[in-house]
Amino acid sequence: MPAAPASPYVPPAPVTAAAPSAPVSVFSSAPPRGEPVRLYRDKRDEERNTDKYEDMSAVFSVITATERLENIWARWGAISQDDYERQCELLIQQYKVLTASTAEFIPKIDKFIHEYDIKASKARPRLACGYPVTVKGPKEPKHQNKFVFRCTSLFHHLGTCIDTNQVAVGFLLPDLISLMKTLKSISSLPQDFVFNARVEFWVEKLNAMPASFELTFDDASQLKLDLDNGYAELEAAISN
């Protein structure tokens, strides 16, 4: 009897499981391919950029601190008026110094506020005007003669500074702010005392300038004229 033909079926080779490959970590210690990206060109560039970002951070902090202070004062009344004014004036001076040094890379503060989404609905106008909100309204009458004498001295002092060409913003601005605040303390002055608006205008104008900036001849002449008119207005008001 002939032998049966061999079966063409060949059993498959046993399948061996491949060893799992190690997962690729995004935190691999292997350096990336290509040239490394240098954050700074040299040591000097590193120092300059470090100062830049530190100043920008400080501007951000001052704006947010001012917003917080305004809310504490306006919403909750959790701070006395004297403490509010002292802290507000300190923040305003810090803001002025910082914005002067960061003008190169923060040319427009509104754009900076928008870009970094800073909540500054109360801080922006406060820092722009350059004085606390509490100096906007008249205070209770006390020591009126002292306030009148102080105003008189400031009028003469500021006029003398302009006459002698001492017209740097950092030199004039503190006395202008003092004059504005002292005038608000004289309760006998009428509500429509015209020079109040003029001195507020000059405080805001100078507050927007760097401290080292000197007034132009035209601005200095106009300020002197306004001071002379304001002093004459003050004399007329207190003599009535």
From TrEMBL:
Domain VPS28 N-terminal: 26-137
Keyword S-adenosyl-L-methionine carried by entry: no
Extent of Low complexity compositional bias: 23-32
Main localization, broad class: other
Subcellular location(s) of the protein: Endosome
Keyword match Transport: yes
Disordered: annotated span: 23-50
Family annotation (Pfam families): VPS28
One GO term of the biological process aspect: protein transport to vacuole involved in ubiquitin-dependent protein catabolic process via the multivesicular body sorting pathway
Basic and acidic residues bias locations: 35-50
Boundaries of every VPS28 C-terminal domain copy: 143-239
One Gene Ontology cellular component: ESCRT I complex
Annotated signal peptide: none
GO molecular function, one term: protein-containing complex binding
InterPro entries associated with the record: ESCRT_assembly_dom, Vps28, VPS28_C, VPS28_C_sf, VPS28_N, VPS28_N_sf
Keyword annotations from UniProtKB, A to Z: Endosome, Protein transport, Transport
Protein family according to the UniProt entry: Belongs to the VPS28 family.
Protein name, per record: Uncharacterized protein
Species name: Chondrus crispus
